[in-house]
């Protein structure tokens, strides 16, 4: 051929994908398998599926309502979870757990210390068969442990486990991407590594709707959140010649702006936007007399968040990371400053 070769692509119809549309596609894909199960095993399959889906939806709604977070049952992910759970159970499975049921095997993920377990989960602590974590301060509990403090996110470790178990589908990749992205501040924290980006690239290659995840977690703020940030940033207290900063969130501020737990998520990251700051200490009042300290440190390694909070009785990530600890009001900013 003497002339140039012209390559043309076929006409494509572009359609925006969302989490709810992706989950709906999964539900539609599962309908034929569900229909076959009903044909083979009877209508009890439908009853078991209804109980499973209803339980998952109510559990998600109740948990987020309890924590004051926005309602997410409309994205249909809980429905997909309920469907998959029902289809993995035998048709003779009971609708609810027997009285006095206790799990024989528990998996903990991204929990470094026993003090970080919810009070209702304390009874499960002796039954932890596998602990998956990435914090240097991990306390070493669990019959078996899968711990790598060199990973920026626990999602990286879970991704490797999923790869060993089989193909990582888009349905599996989406929550894993959310785990990696949120643990690294959308890949801007200093603990982010080349492996973090490689895991993220592999997850994106499955075709997930990463844009909606990033928009939801990093580019969307409620009016209450904006009011919180405005007040906090207008009352900064600097120390060590401007290399450190205190941020305070009393209960009265939360009530005044009408903020929920969801609005107060990761407020310590505000310290990282102040030029020249190596360490940000957020003091948040959880209830009268009880405060939570959250540290955010820079990449230069001048402050090690794990060591600071360990001296105060807690733990977390090291240099370039974050750490959290609960303490009584007797700990003043002066005592925290001395520890830093």
Structural account:
- The chain has eleven helices and nine strands.
- The chain has a six-stranded mixed beta sheet with strand order 4-5-6-7-9-8, sandwiched between helices.
Task: Jot down its keywords.
40% helix, 11 helices, inorganic pyrophosphatase (n-terminal core), three-stranded parallel sheet, 9 strands, six-stranded mixed sheet, alpha/beta, 3 domains, Diaminopimelate Epimerase, Chain A, domain 1, 340 residues
- Parts with pLDDT < 50 across at least 5 consecutive residues: 325-331
How many domains is the backbone divided into? Answer: 3
User: What is the average of the pLDDT values?
Assistant: 82
What sort of overall outline do the alpha carbons produce when their principal axes are compared? globular
- The level 1 CATH classification of the largest domain is Alpha Beta
Could you say what the CATH topology of the largest domain is called?
A: Diaminopimelate Epimerase, Chain A, domain 1
Give the gist of this structure:
This protein has 340 residues and is an alpha/beta fold. It has helices at residues 19-41, 44-66, 77-87, 154-165, 170-183, 194-204, 210-218, 223-233, 251-257, 305-311, 333-339, and strands at residues 106-109, 128-133, 144-147, 237-239, 244-249, 279-287, 290-297, 315-316, 322-328.
Give the helices and strands, then pairings.
Blueprint: H1 19-41, H2 44-66, H3 77-87, E1 106-109, E2 128-133, E3 144-147, H4 154-165, H5 170-183, H6 194-204, H7 210-218, H8 223-233, E4 237-239, E5 244-249, H9 251-257, E6 279-287, E7 290-297, H10 305-311, E8 315-316, E9 322-328, H11 333-339
Parallel strand pairs: 1-2, 2-3, 5-6
Antiparallel strand pairs: 4-5, 6-7, 7-9, 8-9
Helix pairs in contact: 1-3, 2-3, 4-5, 5-6, 5-7
């Amino acid at each position: 051929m003497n002339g140039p070769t012209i390559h043309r692509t076929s006409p494509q119809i572009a359609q925006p994908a969302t989490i709810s549309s992706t989950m709906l596609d999964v539900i539609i894909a599962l309908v034929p398998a569900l229909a076959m199960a009903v044909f083979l095993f009877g209508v009890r399959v439908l009853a078991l599926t209804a109980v499973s889906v209803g339980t998952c939806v109510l559990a998600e709604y109740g948990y987020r309502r309890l924590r004051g977070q926005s309602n997410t049952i409309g994205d249909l992910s809980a429905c997909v979870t309920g469907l998959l759970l029902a289809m993995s159970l035998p048709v003779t499975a009971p609708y609810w757990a027997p009285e006095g049921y206790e799990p024989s095997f528990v998996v903990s993920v991204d929990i470094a210390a026993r003090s970080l377990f919810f009070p209702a989960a304390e009874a499960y602590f002796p039954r932890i068969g596998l602990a998956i974590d990435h914090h240097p301060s991990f306390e070493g509990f669990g019959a078996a442990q899968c711990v790598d403090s060199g990973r920026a996110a626990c999602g990286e470790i879970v991704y490797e486990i999923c790869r060993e178990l089989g193909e990582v589908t888009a349905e599996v990749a989406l929550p894993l991407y959310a785990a990696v992205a949120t643990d690294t501040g959308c890949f801007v924290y200093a603990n982010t590594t080349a492996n973090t980006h490689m895991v993220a690239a592999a997850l994106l290659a499955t075709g997930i709707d990463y844009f909606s995840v990033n928009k939801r977690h990093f580019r969307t703020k409620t009016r209450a959140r904006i009011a919180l940030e405005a007040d906090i940033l207008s009352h900064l207290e600097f120390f060590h010649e401007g290399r450190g900063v205190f941020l305070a969130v009393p209960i009265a501020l939360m009530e005044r702006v009408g903020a929920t737990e969801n609005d107060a998520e990761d407020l310590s990251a505000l310290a990282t936007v102040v030029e020249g700051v190596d360490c940000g200490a957020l003091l948040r009042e959880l209830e009268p007399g009880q405060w939570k300290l959250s540290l955010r440190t820079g990449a230069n390694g001048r402050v090690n968040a794990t060591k600071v909070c360990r001296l105060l009785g807690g733990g977390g990530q090291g240099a370039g990371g974050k750490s959290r600890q609960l303490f009584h009001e007797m700990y003043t900013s002066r005592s925290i400053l001395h520890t830093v």
